[in-house]
Model the fold of this input.
Amino acid sequence: MGAGHAHVLYRESASPVHRLPPEVKIVAMVVFTLAVVATPRTAFWAFGAYALLVAAVAALARVGPGWLLSRALIELPFVLFAVALPFLGAGERVELLGLRLSEDGLYGAWNIVAKGTLGVLASLLLAATTTTRDLIVGLDRLRCPQILTQIATFMLRYLDVLVGEARRMRVARVSRGDDPRFLWQLRGFAAGVGALFLRAFERGERVYLAMLSRGYSGRMPAVWQGAGAATAGQWLVAATVPVLAAGVAATAVLLT
Amino acid sequence: METLAMHISNGIIDGPVAAVFAAVALVAMTFCVLRGRSDLDDRLAPMAGLVAAFIFAVQMLNFPIFTAGVSGHLLGGALAAMLVGPWVGALCVAVVLVVQALVFGDGGVAMLGLNITNMAVLGTAAAYLLIALLLRVLPRTPTGLGVTAFVSALFSVVVAAMGFVGQYWLGGTTDLGGNLGGLAGTMAGVHLLIGVGEGLITATTVVTVAKVRPDLVYALRALKPAAPAPVPAVGGVR
Done:
């Protein structure tokens, strides 16, 4: 968790995908993911089609495959779980490379890896093309309750406060003769976690009061100004991907 | 890195069960929004944001348990329930999960209902019930508060983990046969250990906050609404 963690995944660019309003992208991403999850796991071709869709959007958004794949490693623990499934699963056993594996487990593993990866790639594309600020604006325009967007706004704002305070406290410790290395940092961190929280809160409270005195009323200015909300045309453009995905899913369900 | 246990990824649980829990989570969250609105005043709004940010950061601390092949992380439900109350607390955890799912691909979007049910609803509810109970039984001392925070955090983590086991039993995409008991055992053991870590962090944080700014601890506020919190000796920090 470095500084500016909240923006660490955003890739500055002016591609057509970046220019789409955030609410449109959120809906497209969620519908796409739902279509992927609803696809029967035996319809292998459907997952290929989804991968093509993801690749097309990535190309359009000028996000490189290397960037995407290295960020997708977040999924790794699930892949490990998936690898264990063919050994743990019950039911029919099949012979594969000299190992007796559970057939159900093999399908299960494929299911988790394929659907999980596609879901992660879709979220990464959203994150790469939308700033976190825009994301909250988008959620607000989608009529997400204000209390939630408000918590989310402060969460993203205070992440940087928290990281900054943690760094200042670490510098203070080091300059007073502490010499933290690798794991032993944890001890100093654990001892100071309460103080860190309080310091971050008091700083955050000042940020909040400053916002209030400048006219903050619980919503981002971009929302109440209403500028840049999605037009019907933009909804149509963004709908192509989820509609295609839903078509693939429907075909796959009908065929199997 | 993330956990197998807590952030369920797409495809682990089948569609119908995920849909049912999405409905459960939606109902619970609507309820929390309605109840939480009256709670969220000028003092709680920045606190809720900070609690969410804290949980977000703390969820990145992973405890890999290599022998079991899984890892888990802290949840923060008890901390949230303690500092901002059960309603806003559950919303804080839910917001963290939504942002993680949308932006970091941590936990599948289609599985959000399951994740929110486990961590935001079950975890926070279990923690708050214990907090309400223990604060009445235990002495009103920093130790009593610390023990309350520790126990409720420990318990809430295990409850959330058992939520996953229950969901896997209902709709796991792969039939583990007799291994489900093993899954439950592994999850319980692993999360007991995580719960100890979570309990320690929650207890230190809550006790520190309660010593300096007792007015900020929701659980203490709810207990004695009439008696104003004593003005902290270490004023002037603002």
